[in-house]
Design a protein that fits this description.
- The chain crosses the membrane at residues 508-531.
- The structure is a single chain.
- The protein is α/β, with parallel strands linked by helices.
- The protein has a domain at 554-696: Alpha-Beta Plaits (2-Layer Sandwich).
- It contains 27 helices and 27 strands.
- Strands 12, 16, 17, 18, 19, 20, 21, 22 and 23 form a nine-stranded mixed sheet that branches.
- Strand 8 (144-148), helix 6 and strand 9 form a beta-alpha-beta unit.
- Helix 2 crosses helix 8 and helix 11 packs across helix 17.
- The longest helix is centred in the first third of the chain and has 26 residues, at 7-32.
- The radius of gyration is 32 Å and the shape is globular.
């Protein structure tokens, strides 16, 4: 007997089921709906910044944007000082406060997610030329130390003074800008901040550590709904990118806090050792090697020259390079005192301890590859080509293939030929050597296979040479990110040589065609060369010209300044830094077309005045620079004309041109390095811009 279906109950169950589905879909849509969230925006070097064009960046800004990708939040930024914004946050007028340390008191006033935004240490900083800095700390009696009001640093400083320096005084500030200004002007002798806020060139050194803490993207007590979404978003980010905050740290803060001020011991070492003897392995291009005349070449020269430059000691220290045909011989020379520094060294602390040397921080990490003939097979490695004297290659070969026979060769090129001829099965080389060889030789026989190994390369000094080690570490920390790997490109071609067999092998078909059609190809080649030169000249001009203004562009500026830096400047040289005022206001009120019109007008004015005397460059959105030669008797006249550039010009929207200028000329040119000239001109331009906005009463952010 069939059981009858109870249709009313069936319909009711279906209705409930569909209702639940609808509710779930509605919640999902609601969750994804855009939501406006108010965020505190306070200026902090590399943490939160905004330029005159409204371009925002910084650690906290990237952090906030990443969260918005998982929450669909749209941010409304509330500007102010740290003190002002924190008070608004506690009153519930702001939803999110970045960079807030968690304390018991603050936990009563704010909500904190389960994931910290970052971790920072707090230091007392002094001016680099302060005797206190040379000693890396001393008595603080009578000193005034600046710190931000309502900050965790303030709590730590009070505790430290109470326990360590009762004679010191505290002065409170509402934000980073006013605190730093007071320190710069000398109103306070020291200042408290985190290393993350220190920029290269500030010339500040830490003299005392007073504590540290995690900091968070805090949520208003009135918005627990946001906390739930924030925790969920951070959980997703951490699950997918566990090193997310470390990557942000590397992006914004790597090298920023490096102090270029040398300690007393470092200065003494330089005075006693004005010549720095550097040993290098002569068969390790692109890192180190010899040119055809027997002189040093390779990345080592770029590393050392840039380190000395960044430390400001290029005139006090003369590097002398000494080549060695084996790393063992170079190590022996280091131990005997013939050299002070050896390069390259494998960043293996176990080996370093055995050899009693100090290793610097890593300069570069490169993947390793196997070079072999034919098809790869697991059991193919019976004989390994090893360059004589290359301990890196020897140790790696012995570790990975302990039963294989080592076939010694004199150079990497010879090793490639040995493998190609079948006299060795494989050779292990780093990626730069592999790329150098195969960029020159399109080999049809040899193949490559990546190894689960990386080579980390550094320098080494004798154990106990602490001031020298400290100097090298300071210099390495100041090098730009990826400096070493990008420097290898210049030397890639020098690391592989050709013989006639390679040439014929690679160009056999071309040689055959050239033999048959010599006359035609010669004529064609000549025509092609003429056309190529014309095209190259045209492309070169395009590559060095700013499309909007017709001025020379940033690429041209960098290349020209590099050439200028290598020679003495003439007495009539003048360097000018210029920046357009009110561009952001023009863009916001009249549109970007009006802003572009304003930039072009300023560029035309600069060309009219300065083109007869040298080059004018557009090096940024509204930033210009010029390196010109103006006869001393005409400098005052020309600079006066420059200050009046386009004063009578009016744009289509009524906008006017106003330039902030910074000029370095006369005797100053001969006394300063190019780096110092540019920095001084930029500073004068910034002072001129500040005076302009103070005089007009306009807000730079609007």
């Amino acid at each position: 007997m069939k059981k009858k279906i109870d249709f009313p109950r069936f319909y009711m169950a279906c209705t409930v089921f569909l209702t639940l589905i609808f509710v779930m879909l509605f919640c999902s849509v609601s969750w994804a709906a855009e939501q406006t969230v108010k965020v505190a925006f306070f200026e902090g070097e590399h943490f939160l910044t905004e330029d005159d064009n409204g371009h925002k960046q910084g650690y906290a800004y990237d952090y906030l944007q990443a969260i918005s990708y998982y929450t669909n939040w749209k941010y409304e930024y509330v500007y102010g000082t740290w003190t002002e914004l924190l008070e608004q946050f506690y009153r519930g007028e702001i939803d999110l406060m970045p960079g807030l340390s968690k304390t018991a008191d603050r936990e009563e006033k704010a909500l904190f997610p389960g994931y910290p935004m970052g971790v920072e240490s707090y230091y007392i900083y002094a001016h680099a030329d302060d005797p206190l800095a040379q000693l890396r700390g001393s008595a603080f009696d009578g000193h005034v130390i600046g710190v931000n009001r309502y900050s965790y640093q303030y709590d730590l400083l009070k505790k430290w003074i109470r326990e360590e320096a009762p004679g010191a005084q505290i002065r409170l500030f509402d934000g980073n800008e006013s605190r730093q200004a007071a320190f710069t002007s000398g109103e306070t002798q020291e200042t408290v901040t985190t290393a993350l806020n220190i920029n290269y060139g500030m010339n500040m050194v830490p003299v005392r550590w007073i504590g540290g803490s995690d900091y968070y993207l805090a949520v208003s007590k009135n918005r627990p709904d946001l906390l739930e979404k924030l925790d969920s978003a951070l959980g997703e980010i951490v699950a997918i990118k566990p090193n997310f905050t470390n990557q942000l740290m590397e992006k914004y803060f790597q090298g920023n806090a490096v102090s270029m001020s040398l300690s007393r011991e470092e200065n003494r070492y330089i005075t006693e050792h004005p010549v720095l003897r550097i040993g290098y392995f002569a068969n390790y291009l692109p890192f180190s090697g010899k040119d055809p005349d027997g002189n040093v070449q390779g990345v080592i020269t770029d590393i050392v020259s840039n380190m000395l430059h960044f430390l400001g000691i290029e005139r006090r220290v003369t590097p002398v390079y000494i080549s060695y045909d084996s790393m063992d011989a170079m190590l022996k020379a280091l131990k005997n005192g013939e050299i002070q520094v050896m390069f390259p060294c494998e960043n293996d602390v176990t080996i370093a301890e055995e050899e009693e040397v100090f290793l610097t921080s890593e300069l570069i990490r490169v993947p390793m590859f196997m070079i072999f003939r034919g098809e790869y097979q697991e059991d193919m490695v019976k004989r390994i080509a090893v360059v004589r004297g290359n301990n890196f290659q020897k140790r790696l070969s012995e570790r990975l293939y302990p039963d294989a026979e080592a076939v010694e060769c004199e150079s990497t090129d010879e090793g490639f030929r040995i493998v190609e001829a079948g006299d060795a099965d494989v050779m292990l080389v780093n990626e730069t050597v592999k790329d150098a060889y195969f960029s020159k030789v399109r080999n049809r026989v040899l193949n490559t296979f990546p190894l689960p190994e990386n080579r980390t390369i550094c320098m080494a000094v004798n154990r106990g040479k602490i001031p020298l080690y400290s100097l090298l570490e300071r210099g390495i920390a100041a090098l730009p990110k990826n400096f070493v790997i990008t420097s290898t490109y210049e030397y890639i071609g020098a690391s592989s040589s050709f013989d006639i067999d390679n040439f014929i092998h690679e160009h056999i078909y071309t040689i055959f065609i050239v033999t048959i059609l010599t006359a035609v190809l010669v004529i064609g080649s000549i025509s092609y060369l003429i056309m190529s030169r014309r095209e190259k000249a045209a492309y070169d001009r395009m590559a060095h010209t700013d499309n909007m203004t017709g001025l020379w562009n940033r690429r041209a500026y960098d290349e020209d300044m590099e050439r200028v830096e290598k020679k003495d400047l003439p007495a009539d040289a003048v360097y000018i830094s210029a920046d357009l005022n009110e561009l952001k206001h023009c863009n916001d009120t009249l549109g970007h077309e009006a802003g572009d019109e304003m930039i072009r007008a300023a560029a035309d004015g600069l060309k009219e005045v300065l083109n007869p005397y040298g080059k004018v460059y557009r090096i940024g959105g509204d930033e210009f620079a010029a390196m010109v030669r103006i006869p001393r008797e005409r400098q005052k006249e020309i600079l006066e004309a420059l200050s009046q550039v386009k004063k009578d010009w009016t744009g289509s929207g009524g906008q006017r041109v106003s330039l902030s200028l910074g000029v370095v000329a006369g005797d100053e040119i001969r006394k300063l390095t190019l780096h110092e000239i540019i920095a001084e001109a930029d500073q004068r331009m910034y002072d001129n811009k500040a005076a302009y906005y103070q005089q007009t009463g306009h807000d730079r952010r609007k």
